[in-house]
Structure formats: C-alpha cells, structure tokens
Batch of 2 targets.
Target 1
Amino acid sequence: MIVAGVDIGSQTSKAVVLKEDHVFRSALFPTGTDLYAVARKVVENAAQELGHTFDDIQRIVATGYGRVSVPFAADTMSEITCNAVGAYHFYPDARLVVDIGGQDSKAIKINDEGKVVNFAMNDKCAAGTGRFLEVAAETLGVSVAELAALSRRSGNRIRISSTCTVFAQTEIVSLIARRTPQEDIAAGLHESIVSRVYGLINSIGPGDTGRVVMTGGVARNDAIVSLLASTMKREITVPEDPQIVTAFGAALVAKSRLGSE
Amino acid sequence: MGTEVKIGNRLESQNRLGKLIVDHYREAREIKESKRKPIVWTTTAAPNEILWAMDFCVLFPEAYAATCGARHAAYRHCKITEDKGYEHHLCTYCRNGLGSTLADIEGLDPFDPLPAPDLLLVANNSCSLITKWWEHLSHYWDVPMIHIDTPYIIPGIQEKDVIGHIKGQIGDLIRFLEEFTGKKFDLDRLREVVRNGSESAKGYTDMIKINKHKPSPSTYFDLMPHNFPNLVLRYKPEVADHYRLMKQEMNERIREGIVPFENMKHRVYWDGIPYWFAMRFLSKKLQSLGICLVTSAYSQLFAFDRSDPERPLDSVAENTAYFYLNRDVRYKAEYTEQLYRDYDMEAGIFAYAMTCKPFSITMHYIADYVQKKLGVLSTIIEGDLVDDTFFDEEKTGIRLETFAEALESNKPSVGKVVF
Amino acid sequence: MQSILDNLKLRYSRRNSEIVKWKDDTGGKVIGCLPMYFPEEFVHAAGLLPVTLFGGNGPITHANRHLMTNACGAVRSTFEDLLSGKYDALDGVAAVLICDQVRFFFQVWSLDHEFAFFHQMWRPFNMSEASRPFLLNELKRLKSGLEEFAGKAITPDKLRESIRLFNETRSLMRALNDIRKTRPGLLKSSDLAKAIAAGMIMPKEEYNSLLKKLLVQAQDLECEPGEKPKIMVCGHPCGMPEEEILDLIEEMGAVIVGDDFFTGSRYFSVDVPCSGDPVEAYADFYLGLTPCTTYHYPQNWIEQDRSLSTYGDYVADYVLENGIQGVILLREMYCDPFDLEFVMLKKRLEEQNIAHITLNTGHEAGSLETQRTRIQGYLEMLSL
C-alpha cells in the first residue's frame, strides 16, 4: 500500500507519502501561483524520498485551500478534518489542536475517537496568523526568528491596540518614532497574535482536559507557543514536524479510503 | 480678548465633583455590605425618579463605563467579552459593562466594579442595543429586569400617545417595585425627588450656559464631567448647590478676565461622546492649536429639564420620552445649529464613535447641515467611546492640525465637509 | 416548474426596472418598504403597490459619503441605491424602525430626497400586551397617512381583503418551502430565497397565480431521497442571503430543510387573523410573530427559570422537531441585535448539543474559499 496526502496551503505546499507500518516521507515547497505544478512536484518529491515514483501511489487525498486544484487526487477533504486526523494519530490523547498557518489559524476540538466536535477559523483578516508576524517583522527590519528572540528580552511588553495587520504596521512605525524599545514592540506583537488565537480557542470552548497540540508553521516559534501556553494555563505539545501534520492526516484518510474499497 | 490674560487654575468645583463621585460609590459599597437597600442598575434616561422615590440605591453602568475608559481599564473588560464571543464592533460601553460583570462573577479582578445589582431597569430611548446589553446582565447576575419601551419621537407621531405609553409602563413598574420591595409607593416622596431633580436640572443648565461668554471661562472638557451629579445624584437637594457654586466660580473668572489656557484663538463645537481614554491627549492637542471647545449637544443628554414637581409622573415620563438621543435627526441638526449661534462658534469637531450607532450614524448629516447653514468648518475624527483599539493618536493629531491650519487661513469652506 | 422559477428570479434581479414597468402599465403608485416587518397589507388596501427594498451587491460609493463603514450591508446598500437613483420611480418609502441603524438613519432618506409619502413606524420592542395600545395607535397612524396620500379610505373590508390575499401568498410560499424540505434537490435554497423575494416586489395577485401554477407542475416531480445531513440556516435577518454560500452548502452534500431568513420562514410562517377588526388582528399578528433578535420578550426576564434566549429556543426547537443535524449561522457584519443574541443562542445550542458553525457574510466579507473550507470541515464533522 502506498498512499499520499497533499496540503496546498496559501504559502507552502506539503505532501506526505505513506506506506505500511506508518513509514512515511514528506516534502515541502512554497506554493507559488501554479497550484497543479506545485502539488505534483511536492508529491513526487516525497515519493522519491521513500524510494518510489508518483505512479506507485494508489490513492491521494488533497487538502488545504488549493485542494480543488489537484486533479490527480481521488478525494478532497478540508484541512480541519485532516489536521485533526493527523494530530490524533501522533497523540491519541490530543483533545485540542491549534493550527497557525500563513494566512489562517484554526482551533479544533476532538473527542477520544479523534472525531472533530467543534472548530473555529479566524475570519476577516490576517491578524492572528503567521502573516501578521511576517509583516510586523518586516516593518521592524528583522526576521521572524529575531522577532521571537527580541520579545523574550522585553522588560515592558507594550500593547498593540490595532487588530488589523495593516493598521498594526502603522502603529509599529509610530512606536518606533517614539523610540519604544524594539524588544517591547516585539513582545507586544506576540501578545497581540496570541490574544487573537486565544479568542478563537475560547470561541469553541477548549475544555480543560487532554493534550493541546499546536501545528502549522508558527508552531516552530517557541515565543508564541510559550506565551499561548501561559495564557491558556496549559501545556502545549508541538510535533517534531508541525507543518506536515495536516498532509499526514490527508494521507491517513487516503489509506482508510483505500482500505474500504 | 483683553491684553492682559490670566490663566485659570483648576476649578475648585472639580475637587467638589471628585468628592461627590467618591462619596457616591463609597455609599453604594456600604449599601452592598449592609444590604440596607436594594441595588438597581439603570440607564441614563429611564424613569429613575421612581427608583429613588422607592429608596433604591441606583447605579449607572454607562457612567461606570466612562470612568473605566478614562482610567484605561475599559479595554481589558472589553477583551474579556471578546473571548466570550462578543463581536469587537459592539458598543464598548456594553462590552465594558459585560466584561466587568463577567470578571466580577468569575473572580477575575475587574476595575472598581459596581456593587452587584438586585434588579435591572432599562429604557431603549438611547438605543435598542442597550436592552440587549441589559438582558445579558440579567442572565449573568440572575436578577429580574424591567424594560421601558420608549418610542422614538418620530416627526408626525402623536406625542401624547408616546407619553401615555411610557406612563402606562411606569404604572406597571411601580406595581412591580411595590411587590419587589414590599413597600408602598409614595407619590409625595416622588414629588420631593422630582423637585430636587428640577432644581438640580436648572442649576446644571445654567452652569453649562456660562461658556456663552467670550472668552469662555472654561473649556467644554472641564464642564463635561459635571453631568455626573445631575445624572446620578439629582434626587439629593445638595446637588443644586454644587451647580450654584460652580456658576459663581465661573462668574468670578469672567469678572477677573481669567481664561482656561493661553493663546485661545478659536471657539469650537464638539459633537459626540468624548473619547474617554484620550481626554488628556485631546485636551493638550487642542490647547496647543489654540482651539477652545465651548459646548456640545452631548450636554443636553443630561439636562432632564422636564422635571416638574407639580406633575411628577408626567414629567418623569417626559424626561424619558424627550431624551436627546430619542429625537429625530432633523431636530438634532437644528438644535446643533442653534448651539453654534448661541455660543458663537466658528467650527465643529465631530467625534465619530465606531461602536456607537445613535451618536455616529447621522453625524455626517449633522456636520453637513450646520456647514451648509452657517458656512462653518467641520471635521470628523474617528475613535470610540472607551476602547482605544479604534483610535489612532497620530492620525487624529494630523487631522486636528490640518483643521487648525484651515481655521487659521480663516476661509470657511463651501459645500461639503472639508475633511 | 423551472420556467416559472426562472421568471421569478428574473423579476427579482430586475426589481428596480420592474417598478417602472408596473407604473407604466397600470398608472399606479409604488411604496418602497424597508425590511423587515412592514405592514404591506395596509399599503395594498390603499390601492398602492408595496415593494420591499433590497439593496444591491455592487460596491458602495455614494453612501460612504454619509455613512461610515460600520453600518450593516443592508442599510448601506439600500442607501447607495437611493443615492444612485435606483429608487427614483418610487412614490414613497416607509419603514418599521426595527433596529438602531434604521431608527437613527432612515429619516436621512427624506431630508435630502423629496418623497411624496414618507413614513416611519414604531413597533414596540417590548413584545407584550402592554405594548398593544401603542401598537394599535401606530397602525392607525399608518392607515390614516396612507389614506391621505392615496386619497381613499381603507375600510375594514378592504383591509381584510388584502390580509386574505397576503395570507394566501404566505400559504403558497409555505408550500414552496415544503418542496425544499420534503423533496431535497428539487429546489435550490438560493432559488427559493429569490422566489420568495420576488413575491415581495411583485403584485401579489400575479405572484400568487404564478406560484399556484408552479406548485401544480412540481407535484409530479420526483427526487431521490439521499442520506444527506439536514441543516438549518439562520441569521442574516434583513437582506437577501448570499447565494454562493447557500449553493456551497448544498453542493457539498447537505440539505437545507429550514431557515429563518426574511426571504424565507420569517416572512411566511405566520398568518394575520382574518376575523374581527383587521387593525386589531394585525396587532395580534405582530405580537405573535416568529421570535426575532430585534425584540424584547419581557416575561423571560422577570420570571424564575428563565430561558437564555427566546430566539435560541425557537432555533433549538425547530432543529429538534425536524430531525436536523446541525445549524449554520450566517452573521451579517455590524448587525448588533444578532451579534448580541448570538452569544446566548450559541449557549443554547451547546446546551442541546446541536452542532453549529458561524459564517461571517455580507458586504465585503471574507473570501469564498475560506467559507468553502469551513463548510466542508463542518459537514465532514457531521457525517464522519
């Protein structure tokens, strides 16, 4: 059995190719504008890593915002379900998954069977997503990683009042003009994104038992993870490769669909 | 302006006001402890005289919201409601009130919370959102709420029907309160409360008008907080004294040629609810630009000028019906125009509040109207009642500077609002 | 059935030019009624044509000169239509002041634009018997205003006749709704909403006869009963719900069996009583309408063991009575009454373990792609 899951996100595309005994390899590329090409390329790469070719794959499930642009996929499935399936596979005691990606963030509540019982996605704008941090870092003239490092050194976290990414940018500029220390601005920015995500989590009623798993690119930012953990007063688990959890979930769905045919 | 300019110190009346406010809240906390009176939370222009006459401790979540805004605590309360699923763009007075309530109930340390209510009273004459706000308070505190349906004064409506409708509900309210407290309603006591209220209202209205004098002895932002006694304490006889003393103090200033700040150049109208969190910023900015805010239609919200001890029930119903926000837009536009004339103001700043529909939704129209009628300059700034996430100091500063430059060039614009 | 349906949809899409055409054909006068709850029967009984004003979907430009963007799409887009001349053919406009935006803003319509007939009506927020006398006064004030404008009396018989006609419309609309409910797939929800909206802009006489024909034709049509999850869609109280969202829900394999749209159940669920004094009957009708987030139900707030939300009860009961699996809430940006009620509605649904999801819709809302993901994720959650 060889199956694959492909997750076409707004900024990066991920694929996981899976065979027996949950042996898998993954690949990741920037999404770009040609969704079909990137989907094909990312699946091919993951297959090669596993010593196979694209044609060896028996079933493919596509997910992510570009899922409808993957004609070679047998099914499409929302990233909400795939993310939950993936996270549950790695951590069967996971009851809440927080996924912060490039353009969106999600909070997904799952039960002891791995079934989604409630979820929420950010709406309206990029506040509370990876994009927000990128824009902010750019405005401060640092990298996202440097931004996280800066925030840890802050002695006086200031409050960023703008909830919109574009307005926050103006606000940062005026903070710089007022000679606010970069560290404090950085800390304020992290606080701002965490408070957005926390609101999202609250909107579905996070429950107070079970593991909290964080996935998506922003899960690599330990400043965000620890701030969210302290805001929620919960421990947060980050998988080894948080960006491929959704693609992995899609591969698992492909596997179960293949089995049921 | 005379050649010799004297700059006024802080008004003594500000200290007296501070004490009135502190005493009021201290008494409320004492009442909560001793349980000697039931506590009711009410809205600005509900028939509150009935509550005072029935010896309730009467508290105003809207006034509390303003305080939280001024003390930079409101955004924290607002944030709590957002986490509970309340939209960011909902009235921030409401979100502040619900946030502090939730914080209080869940032990989250709200800012100086109002003592918990035993009963809620609401009138929808300010807006209909407030009825929903009160419904939520009623849920969280698990206490009954009474709603007074207040029809909008629509042009052409039979005003006696409106008054009759409100009076009928006041009758129901009295019956409910008699049962709730186990006490009989006393019309003579109401008459006394209304008499005190009418004295207080006269004092308040007189005091506000002092700024008609040129130059004004104070800025509007100095006078504005003094709506508190007439709103919250007008059932007490001593409130009228406060306004009498305040008027004396201002008259003295006029006699001695004292003005509130140096280099006062422009007499300007303020429209809308003040941005409570930004008062210091706005005051400093406006002073630096030579702009003296003289008055605002906002003051009229706290006039309660129908109070008449000869007709206690009717006049209470009239105060509720003719609440300024319950008047139609043409009335408000004409009223504003008259203020410009009476106070001889050369321009207006219209403070749009992003979460307040009654104040803001017709603001463009009113600004246009006075501009067309009087050829005056208007500017609209953007902000909010108590949540500073809607306010941008830099942007507002630039706008006010541009506005001042336009005033300097002394060319009233024609047609459309300039900014 | 399809050709009548297409005709109705066309009439809805050409709603503004339909007014001009009707006036040319009949020489009659037209009163535009702002959503919701306007007593159209009174307008009809005065020999005038009541048409509901739906705003357009286009960009809002003129209206932004007078209104900030924190007004809801319905208020801004109807005002935009007014300013861009789309309502020039109307002889009058009228509204029940259902929310703060309409209440404070609607009058601005008349201040810059001359209307031969302009009427604002107060429907008490307090849904109780205490409101009846004032409500009756308001209905009488409307009646005399219309009589004066039309130059003829609205007799009790005439009003009763109009009520009968409108009740017939409502009952035909209910039958149309039943098709969607019992034979899923035959009638798209977006088509249903437009077919209902067509009835709010066309003369009821003509509309009723079209709808009767349509219903006869639909009798013989079959549909395959599937195992699709049943959904109720609510929210979006005033305007036309977004076609794309409804279509997405159905394309992704759910069946919409109920809604509470103004262009749906909210409009046709309740009839006006035909007996007794017709103005009194209308007051009865108002006091007994489908629960709405814009009103206050006092009994709930005084008694013990109170409900969280009358509106929430209505939604939860509907779901339980109709074997519905889940609720999709459409939230119009800047609709304060719904946004506040939403918090209690959500609690109520959670109490009942009713799965629900919220989609923000309306003018300038998020992209359809994110909506697709949400809907798909939600339906997967219901069916996996």
Note: The beta strands of chain A are 2-8, 12-19, 23-30, 59-63, 75-76, 94-100, 105-110, 116-121, 211-215, 236-237.
Target 2
Amino acid sequence: MSGPQRVKFYQTGTFTVGNRLLDISVRSIQSDADRHNSLNSGHRACQGCGEALGARYALDAAMHAARGQLVVANATGCLEVFSTPYPESSWRVAWLHSLFANASSVATGMAAAMKVKGRTDVRVVAQGGDGGTVDIGFGCLSGMFERNDDVLYICYDNEAYMNTGVQRSSATPPAARTATTPAVGPEPGNVFGQGKNVPLIAMAHGIPYVATASVADLRDLEYKVARAMEFRGARYMHVHVPCPLGWGTPTSDTIKVARMAVECGLFPIVEAEYGEIIGRRELRQRIPVDDYLRTQSRFAHLFSSRHLGGRDEARIAQMQAIADRNIARFGLMSARTAEKVNA
Amino acid sequence: MFEVRIHGRGGQGVVTAAEMLSIAGFTEGLWAQAFPSFGSERMGAPVTAFCRLDEREIRSREPVNTPDALIIQDPTLLHQVKVFDGLAKNGYVLINSKRSLAELGIAEFLAGLPAANVMAIPATELAIKHVGRPLPNAVLLAGFCAVTGRIRLASVEAAIRKKFPTAVAERNIAAAREAFAMVSEARGGQGTQQVTTAEGAKRHAEAV
Amino acid sequence: MLKQCEGSVAIAEAVALCRPEVICAYPITPQTHIVEGLGSLVKSGALTNCEYINVESEFAAMSVAIGASACGARSYTATASQGILFMAEAVYNASGLGLPIVMTVGNRAIGAPINIWNDHTDSMALRDAGWIQIFAETNQEAVDLHIQAFKLAEALSMPVMVCVDGFILTHAYERVDVPSQADVDAYLPPYEPRQVIDPDEPVTIGAMVGPEAYMEVRYLAHAKQMQALELIPELAAEFKAKFQRDSGGLIRTYRTEDAETIVVALGSVNGTIKDVVDAMRADGVRIGAVSLISFRPFPSQALHDALAHAKRVITIEKSLSVGIGGNVSHNLRMAIQNPQVRMYTVIAGLGGRAVTRVSLDRVFREAMDDRLEPLHFLDLNHEIVDRQLERERLVRRSGPVAESVLRDVGGVTAGIK
C-alpha cells in the first residue's frame, strides 16, 4: 500500500477531501478524461450515496485493468435498483442482474463461459451490498471462494438493508438503530453480537486477494481494485460506503463520516494475499468512537439516554473496545500516531 | 415374461446382480429390465432388486410381485423378510447357503415347488475362494443359469466382464464356472443351455 | 449404439452428445448418477470444451447456469425433489431472463415427511415457473428428449426441464439406443444466443421492470410456450427422420381410436398402463391411453382432439395438489370443455408407492361402472388414516402425524391391532 498513501488527500481538521493538484502520473483513474464511466451519471441513487461513489470508482478501475473487457454480475439491492429501471440503465458495462443471493454464483458461471469460449481476456466482477453478501448471499460467496473461481467480488457495505428501508443486516454495527432494531427499551438499537467479519472469513478461504477499502480514500480503492485484477482466482473487496438515509448523516458528509469510521478504528483498512495480511492503513489521526458515532442519528440514543443521564457510557465503551481491538489486531497505530494521541 | 427377484443385503451386490442378469439377457437378444427396490444406501440393510426378461418390449414398471425365480443372497433374510411372497407355482429358488435345504427350515415355503427347481449353493464360500471377498452375486447367477436354463453361462460371463475390471471379472467368472459345474452335477448332468432368439445368437456369438 | 445400461448413464451420455459447455453438479438422489457420469466424461477427456463445476447447492447450480447461459454457453444441470425447491427462485429467474438452460429432474417426492422415492411433486411445484416441462416414458425417450430439449430451448430462448421418473427410470437398466455424435451434431446446431453478455457490445440484462411493462414480458413468455406447441411436434418429426424413432411430441396415444375410456398420465407409469390396456382390450373393453409428454406447454388442443370421443377420462397423477386433488386433471378439464365427459382423478404412486397392474385394472373397471369417486387415492390404506383421524379427535396432543402413521403401519403389518 505504498503507492496511494504517499499523497495525503484530506485535511486532518475537516476530514474533507483536499484539492491539491497532482502530477499526471499519479492522478486517479477517475480523473482521466477517458475513464469508462461504467456507472454513468443520471442514476437514481440518493444524494451523497456512498455506494454509487464506491461502485463508480471500483468498476472504472476494474474496466481500466481489464482494458474494457469486463462483465459484471450484480446482486439485487440499492445498487441494482437505482441503476437500472429501463431504458435508463446507467451501466456502460456488460451487466447481468439475476437475484439477491446469487451474484457470486452467476459470476462463476460467467467466468466458466468465458473460459470455455477461450475469452480469458474477459474479466468478471460480482458486486452487491452487505445484505446480498454478508447475509443471504453468503453461501454462494463461500462456494465461489472455496473453488477459487476467477471472480472479483466487491461488497459495498452500508451496514443495513437500505433498499427496503433500513433493516438490520449482520453487517449492522452494535447499538445502531434500524427499522428492525429500534432505539427503544433498556437495550436500544442493534444487539452486541459476535460480529461477522467477512474479510477475515474470506481470508480463511486462503483466496489470492482480500482487501477492505473505504470511499474515504478513493485512490486506495482504485489501487486495490487494480491490485485485485492482477490476480486470477477468487478475490474479495469489502468497501465501506456510508448511507446518509440509513445512517442519518448529512448528504454532504459521506466522505467525512467514512473517514471517521476509519480513523476511529471501527472500519480497519487492510490488505491480504493468500490468507495473510500484507498491508494495513495506519491511522493518521486517531479519534475516539464518540466523534464518529455522534455524526449519525442511528447512534443518537447513545448520547441522549434519559435513563443514563444523557450518555450511555457502557455501550459507548463497548464500541470503543471494538475499535481498540481492531487497532491492536491489525496494527493500525504507527508509533507517530500513538505519540500524538498520547500527547 | 420371466421375472426374477433378488434378495440380499447392502454391500452384497444385489443390485449389480440384477443389472448383470439384464445385461446377460440383452446379450441374448432379449428385452431386459433391472431395477432396485430403492432405499437408502446402507451396508447390511435388506435390499431387493428385480429383473424382467422377455422377447418383447417390457413396459410395466411395477416391482416384481409374482416372481418366476427368487435369488436369495443372504439366508439370514429368510426369517426377516417375506422373500417367498408371490412366487410362481413352478418357480425357481436359489439360496446362498452351504447348508442343505432341509437344514434351512424353509420346507413350508418350498412345498409344491418341483424339487429340481430349488437349489442351495455355497456362493459366499465359492466367492471367497475365487474372488477373495464374500460377494455371492456372480456365483448365484451361474446357479440361476444352470437351474433355470433361461440364460447361458457365457452370457453371464459377458455381463460380468462388462461390470467388473478385467482381473476381478476373471476371478468372478472362475467362481461362476465352478458354481455352474457344481449345480449341473447336482442336477445329474449339464445345466440347460439355450439361446432364445436369432438376434441373441448373433449377439451372443459376438460377446463370447 | 444399442446397449443395456442404467438410465442415468444413458442420460449422461446423451447430454454429453449435446456438447454442453458448462455443467453444474450438485448431488441429490436420484439424479446423482447423471452428474457423476458427466463428471467422469469431462475428467477423462471424453467430453471436451466443457467446464464442470461442483457447486455448493442447487441454488448455486442454477445460478451458475444462469451466468454461463447469459454469456452464451450451452448450460446444463440436473436436480430432484428438495433440490428443485431449493433452487426455485433461480428456476423462475432463468425462465424470466429467457435463458435456454436444460435441466434434468429425476422426479421424487417432497418432504416432510422426508421420502426419497419417486413421484412428480417436485416438477409440479415448479410447473408455473415458465419452463417447458417434458416427461419421459422410457429411458430411450429420456435420452431422446434431452437431445430435443437443447434444440427446443435454444430455438425459443426458454429453459427446458426434462422430467424423468426417479429410480424407476434413472436407476433402471434397460435397452437404450444412444445416438452417434455425428447424428446429434447434424440434428443440434451450435447455440446461437438471442442475447449475450459481451464486453464488446455491453447490454444490461435483468433490469427492474415496473407495472408499465411487466405484464407484456410475462405474456411474451406465454406466447413463446404457445409457439412451443408448434415446435415440439416439428422437432419430434425431425428427430424421427434423423433417428428413426418416435420420441417426444406433445402427446402419444395408445389404442384410443374407438376407446370409451381413456387414461391420461405423465411419465413411466404409462408403460404399466399400456399393459393393463392390452389386458383389458383382450377382455373386449374399449380402453386406451394417452401419454402426456409435454405438460408445459399444456397441449390443450391435442388432448381435446385425442379425448373428444371418450365417455370418460381417468387421469393417473403422481402428485397431489393438496386441497383440490389433481394438477393434470385440473388442466385437462380446461382442455376437454365437454361437460358430458366424466372425469376421474386417481392420485397414485406418491412417495414411491408401487402403481401395480392389479390396482390400475381395478380402478379402471370401477370407473367404467361409475363406481369410482371423482377423486380417488390408489391403494390408500383407509384403516390407517381413519385411525389417525380418530386419534386426533380424541386427543389434543396426538403427536407427529408421520410417526403415528408409521407406528400403525408397522403394527398392522405385524398383525397387531
């Protein structure tokens, strides 16, 4: 992860994206006038949709890597719905939607067809949201990994079933309010379960490449897609994509919120090859989970508890413990960052 | 139509026996149909398989309820399963046992059958001797040839060669031949041998 | 080549002759031997240019087939029973997308109670999924229908289910003439897709369709099946010209010309029925039979023509539409239109219960004497069901039904009451 991290793209004070001018050699694929526009403008995603942003960057990077020879399987979900109602398809890539749970299997079939037809130059990407990946599509995903089928699967994780109106998925963070985990009762919001870390599960399959990424760092996302495309076999990317509607954040703050998730340690950015972690994005400016959680109305009950004097210390501490564990487990703190935090 | 029902236990090659008999029938130009009594595939569980032989197309798909011949691969089934149900009045019975018919205690079931139609063969012992494993199916089919005269031994040998790899097939054939000779001798001469159709004679000649 | 072999082996060989490019394999009794056979053919190199994929579920099997077919590959899978229900969503999806996948269904009952034996409940559960459903009477026909199925599916861009009675056909050894590769190649041209996922000509397939167009899309699927009513007999005729065999078509009649009573059924039970028809004809009874080969599309006109002169029609059905009775007879009533024709539905062979000549003979004669109730359950043990109904009347916690019935069956068999 040496390439993209050399240039620092955001201002530490505001968490927004910087605008410094870059040399053409290090410009992003997306800034290229000849980018593919795989997911074209004019689609029906909400303002500030993290998924639309992530998908656009990821697919253009994949198209770039595949020299335009790319086919895509898409799971049912927001991404499929906001992009397709015909004839307003936003896809400028050969694109197939079958069902909610089977994008990885459909992609396996596409890869098999391309192989049997001698079109090994054609690359296959499957994509879906966290519901279609972490929940209902999990069996198919694991099968695709286990067989090491030549597919890059990209999960855009917005941490709930947003298309149907914000219901809990197994990627929903603890304490978060959703339509099926309302912020009522003595234990408001989502349960503190055991979690389901699909990147680690993917790594446990020993597949060639697994990476997490965030729309907070789109150049890192591009880099990882490009890296993923250098491998044959099953590859998995888990991209954190805030949903202003579901999370209760201003539509202008998508990037900022995504970055805070990274900087507090709740969404670690790592890269693994053949089951071993080979890279991590160290925190640049570690922040407490408070700062991240406060930005979102789905966590508002943690800070307005009538029973607990306005602040649910216990739960916030539990969230902080999750972040701390991530930071320790994945080695997200450099000596320098640690110094700054301690100071 | 000539209908055969084979009783045995999972792992004894009961279904294979029916299939081989059908191949032998086919070799002689007959229409033949073999199928198992579909159960879970467990070693040791009672298994039944069926084979029909006819000179015209066999259309019926029901299990063999009124067999012309019974092949009982495991004598421990005699008192557990109603193996003799529906047996034709002049039917044939082949039992895998080194004990005599009298010792098996099944006289009531055999009453009325022509004595020459019933035979106990030490098939397991013959199989162990030649094949090294207690697989009595090929031996009993040879006995079936000798007792019923419906199918030639050579056709059964051709079927054995179709179902087993060469070395195993040859050992099974050796066992089958000894059984055929044993039964023929017990019956006081050669086992009955005939090829049923002209087409069969040709195919039979090719197969042998 | 004429040979004596297991149905599943013959089907595997027939599928291989059709040069499938992607095969999805998942084991479920009784279709397992088919995908095993194809696996051997691919692994040994006998079947080349084919990707054989061991998937992790039937849902994945159909999904992989969808992806492959959409990319222009000739795709095949096989399933049965619970498997087809597990993939049900993808079964509908394949037909909705208009992908010409061919799938063998080794017909088997559906649980609970779990039961691995033959009946038609599985295919019937998916009868409205938009697939063409054709039923084989013999293993020879199973072989031939697979070859016709690929041609039919690809001509219409619509998936085809070849329904083969589990165990009764799949596990039966019988005489089968497996065609030569050259003849199959001459009959079945390479797959030329109507739509294809191609990076050089990118299209969106599987977009959301709203109320403004959904009905039209569905209607077109129906219209295609109506086209299949023309195409299926044409392909059967073409097949006969090439292979000198009558296989397939919409229906096959047997001694119906002057028949007052006509029996209609799907699949292998037609063989047993024909034997009963011959025996009854020998007694001077004017009875005939119709083997219904194409259940979807339902050949209403062909059946109307074949049955128009009958006084009564008896449908032998290996599935039960719980709460009404027969699936086939219900459709048949629509085809016949003549209220003068007396119709009898006989539910038979559920969960592998043997359908015997003796029992068929009995119900046919009862129907001819007008002694048969309109909905009859062949060889149902009334004593057992009455006992259970009585138990449920008397006791609130009457326990699990299947286990109670099994206990009673065991008791009755042993003569204990």
Note: Residues 6-342 of chain A form a domain with the Rossmann fold fold (CATH 3.40.50.970).
